[in-house]
Specification:
about 650 residues; alpha+beta; five-stranded antiparallel β-sheet; about 45% helix; globular
Length: about 650
C-alpha cells in the first residue's frame, strides 16, 4: 500500500510547474566573470514561509532534487561539476523513509560555467526542482545571461509613471515582519485539507457503491475472480489488483487539471470564482440530479464499453486493467453525477484545487475498489450483502435531491461575486426548505419518480431517515426570519453571509459589524481612533471565511473585541467583477518580469496580499497598528479559543 501511495504522490507532483505571483518561490540571478573562460552563475531562491526547496544532493527515490542543465541544442559552454549550495537542513520523511535535504527560507546556488567557444555572447541554463509544503509544485525555469555579467537577456518592460506610482502605493512598509514567519500551522491542516477532501471523496465512493450501476457488480465480479482463477490465491490476487486499477483509473481522471494548473498555479482558484463557471456547474448539477430522478440516463457511448470489454479478454494484468476501465465506463450513469459534484467542490476550495481533486478522486476510487478486494479475501461475506431491489433506486433519488441542493451553492457564488442581489440568504434557505421538504415527502411515499417500484410498506430505515430530513427542514425554517430563533451554525459557509439579506441591514459587513473595504480608508480610521487593525483577507465564495464569521466571530466576547477594540478591514480577493475606477487601474510587474493587469478590486487585493504577506489563502488575518507594525503572527481558519487569545494578545502588544 505504501508503494502505491508513493506512486500517487509522484504522479501528483509531476504535472504542476510555473512561477507566477502565487508561487512560493522568487528567483534572483546574477553572473560573475572568474576568468576569460569561466563564469559563476548565482541563483538566489527566496521561499515563502514553511516551503522547502530540495537540494541537488537529496537522496534517490525521494522528493525531486534540484538540477541545473544546459538546454538541448545549446553549445559553446559546459557545467563544471555540481553547483555549490548554501546551508541546507535535514529531516526524516515518513513517506519516503529517508532523510531528505532541503533549503528553508532562502537558497543560494552557485554554478561554475566553462566557455568552450569564445565567440558566444550569452548562455542559457535550465533549473528543475520541487518545492513542497503540504503539496508539491514542480519548478522548471529558464534563465539567460549576457556574458558581460550585468543583466539577464530579457525584454525590458517599462511601466508608465501611473503604474509605477500605484504599484509603489500597493507595497506596505511593514515593521516587525518576523512575526509573519510564525503563522498558525494548524490552519493549513484544517478546512479544505487534502485529508478532508480525500474523506469526502471516500464517502462519495461509498454512496456510489449503493447505486444500481455498481452494487450488483460486486458479487458477480468477485465470483468471477475466485471461481475462474487457477487457484484461490491467484483469484484473491487478481481481485485485489482489479481494485488497485480502479483506484488508479479514478485518480488519473484528475491529471488534466494538474496540466491546467501547471500553466498557472492560481488558475483553478481564479476560475472557481468565475461567474459563468459557477453557473455552468449549477446547470450541470441540476442536469445530473434530474438524471438521478430517473427522467433520463447519462451514459458514455456504448461503443466505449464494448471496446473495453473486448480488451479485457486479453488476460493477465492488461485484461484486468481493462475490466476495471469497463466498470468505470458502464457505471458512469451513477458515478458521473457524484464525480461532477466532487470536481465542482474541489475547484471551489482554497489551496491547490488540482491536488484537492486528486485526493478526492483517489478517495472515491478507493471506496469503490475496497469491496472487491474485501469480498475476495472473505468470500463468505457475500452472503450477508442485501439483495438488489428498489432500495437502490431510492438511493439514487435521494442523491438527486442532494445534488439539486448542492447546485444552488454554485448559483449563489455567481450571485455574490456578480453583486446581482438575487439569491439572498433567506431565498437560498427557502429553496433548501422546498428541496428537503420534497425529499421528506418522497421518503414517506407521497412523491414517486419514473423508476420507483410500488411501495407496499415503508421500511423502518426509510421512515427514520424521512423523520431526520423533516427535522432538518424545521431547523432551516428560522433562517428565513429577520431575527432567527437560532443561528444555522451547522450550515455556516454554505448559505450566503448573514449580511446578504432581503431584510434591511445596519451594515453590509459580517454580523453587522462596522468594516472598511478599502485598506487606505481603514488605515486612516485607525489613525483617527488610535485603534489596532484587523486586516481580513476574505472572499465572497470562501466557505471557510463564512464559517469563521458565523461560528467564531459570533462568540460574544470575540464579537465585542471586533466591535469595540479593532478597526476591521475586509478585503475581498475574489471580487473580480467589480472594476476599479479607470484612474485606479494599472499594470503590475511581477517578480518574474511578467505584467498583471490590475483592473478589478479582486485583482488589487489578491496582489496586495501576495506582495506584502507572501500568502494567497483565505481567510487570512493580520493584526497591525496604524504605523504598519505587525502585532501578532497571522491567523487563519481556527477555533474560538485560539482566535480569542490571538485577538487579546494583539491588543496587549498594541498597548505596549
Amino acid at each position: 500500500m505504501k508503494k502505491i501511495l508513493i506512486l500517487f504522490l509522484l504522479l501528483f507532483s509531476t504535472f504542476t510547474n510555473a512561477q507566477t505571483e502565487d508561487t512560493p518561490i522568487v528567483w534572483e540571478t546574477s553572473i560573475h566573470e572568474i576568468s576569460e573562460t569561466e563564469y559563476d552563475v548565482i541563483f538566489i531562491a527566496k521561499l515563502f514561509q514553511e516551503w522547502h526547496l530540495y537540494s541537488q544532493y537529496n537522496p534517490e527515490y525521494a522528493s525531486q532534487p534540484l538540477e541545473i542543465l544546459i538546454p538541448e541544442g545549446r553549445n559553446g559552454y559546459k557545467l563544471v561539476g555540481k553547483a555549490k549550495e548554501s546551508q541546507t537542513e535535514k529531516e526524516y520523511s515518513e513517506v519516503w523513509e529517508k532523510e531528505e535535504i532541503f533549503f528553508a527560507n532562502k537558497a543560494i546556488i552557485t554554478q561554475r560555467i566553462q566557455i568552450t567557444d569564445t565567440t558566444i555572447s550569452s548562455l542559457t541554463l535550465e533549473v528543475f526542482g520541487q518545492v513542497c509544503k503540504e503539496a508539491c509544485i514542480q519548478i522548471e525555469e529558464t534563465f539567460s545571461f549576457a556574458l558581460n555579467g550585468k543583466k539577464l537577456i530579457k525584454e525590458v518592460i517599462v511601466l508608465d509613471k501611473k503604474s509605477k506610482n500605484l504599484t509603489k502605493s500597493l507595497q506596505l512598509d511593514l515593521k516587525n515582519t518576523d512575526l509573519l514567519k510564525t503563522g498558525n500551522k494548524a490552519a493549513d491542516k484544517s478546512g479544505n485539507s487534502l485529508l478532508n477532501i480525500f474523506l469526502l471523496g471516500f464517502i462519495g465512493g461509498l454512496l456510489a457503491l449503493l447505486t444500481p450501476c455498481v452494487f450488483p457488480m460486486i458479487p458477480l465480479t468477485v465470483s468471477f475472480f475466485t471461481k475462474q482463477s487457477q487457484s484461490k490465491k491467484k483469484g484473491v490476487f487478481n481481485a485485489i489488483l482489479y481494485g488497485v486499477f480502479i483506484v488508479i483509473i479514478y485518480m488519473l481522471l484528475s491529471v488534466p487539471f494538474h496540466l491546467i494548473d501547471g500553466l498557472d498555479p492560481s488558475i483553478l482558484n481564479t476560475i472557481s470564482t468565475n461567474i459563468w463557471l459557477n453557473i455552468f456547474f449549477f446547470v450541470i448539477l441540476v442536469f445530473f440530479s434530474l438524471s438521478f430522478f430517473g427522467f433520463y440516463e447519462i451514459t458514455l457511448p456504448s461503443s466505449w464499453g464494448t471496446k473495453m470489454d473486448a480488451a479485457s479478454d486479453v488476460g493477465g494484468f492488461v485484461g484486468i486493467f481493462f475490466m476495471a476501465l469497463t466498470l468505470a465506463i458502464v457505471s458512469f450513469s451513477c458515478t458521473g453525477p457524484i464525480l461532477g459534484s466532487l470536481l465542482a467542490g474541489s475547484l471551489g476550495t482554497v489551496g491547490n484545487p488540482a491536488f484537492q481533486l486528486s485526493a478526492g478522486m483517489t478517495g472515491f476510487g478507493l471506496a469503490l475498489a475496497m469491496p472487491f478486494a474485501l469480498f475476495a479475501l472473505f468470500p463468505n461475506l457475500l452472503n450477508s450483502l442485501p439483495k438488489s431491489g428498489g432500495w437502490l433506486n431510492t438511493t439514487k433519488v435521494v442523491l438527486g435531491f442532494l445534488e439539486l441542493a448542492f447546485a444552488f451553492k454554485f448559483l449563489s457564488n455567481s450571485d455574490l461575486v456578480g453583486h446581482w442581489d438575487l439569491l439572498k440568504r433567506e431565498v437560498f434557505i427557502g429553496l433548501w426548505i422546498v428541496i428537503f421538504s420534497a425529499l421528506a415527502l418522497y421518503l414517506f411515499g407521497k412523491i414517486k419518480f419514473p423508476h420507483d417500484s410500488p411501495l407496499k410498506k415503508i421500511s423502518f430505515f426509510r421512515s427514520s431517515f424521512g423523520v431526520l430530513i423533516f427535522a432538518f427542514v424545521v431547523y432551516l425554517i428560522p433562517g428565513t426570519f429577520k431575527n432567527p430563533t437560532w443561528n444555522l451554525s451547522a450550515l455556516s459557509g454554505f448559505p450566503p453571509p448573514q449580511f446578504y439579506s432581503i431584510y434591511e441591514q445596519a451594515s453590509d459587513c459580517p454580523l453587522g459589524l462596522d468594516c472598511y473595504k478599502d485598506f487606505d480608508e481603514g488605515l486612516q480610521a485607525a489613525k483617527e481612533t488610535n485603534k489596532p487593525i484587523l486586516l481580513d483577507f476574505t472572499g465572497w465564495a470562501c466557505v471557510n471565511c463564512r464559517k469563521m464569521e458565523e461560528n467564531v466571530w459570533s462568540d460574544s466576547e470575540i464579537y465585542n473585541l471586533l466591535k469595540e477594540e479593532y478597526i476591521l478591514i475586509s478585503l475581498y480577493v475574489d471580487d473580480n467583477e467589480k472594476e476599479l475606477p479607470k484612474a485606479a487601474q494599472f499594470d503590475f510587474k511581477k517578480a518574474n518580469g511578467n505584467i498583471k493587469k490590475i483592473k478589478t478590486y479582486g485583482d488589487k487585493w489578491s496582489t496586495f496580499q501576495i506582495l506584502n504577506f507572501k500568502n494567497a489563502s483565505q481567510p487570512y488575518y493580520i493584526l497591525m497598528n496604524a504605523d504598519l507594525e505587525i502585532l501578532n503572527s497571522p491567523q487563519q481558519y481556527t477555533d474560538i479559543k485560539t482566535y480569542k487569545n490571538w485577538l487579546k494578545k494583539g491588543i496587549e502588544n498594541f498597548n505596549k
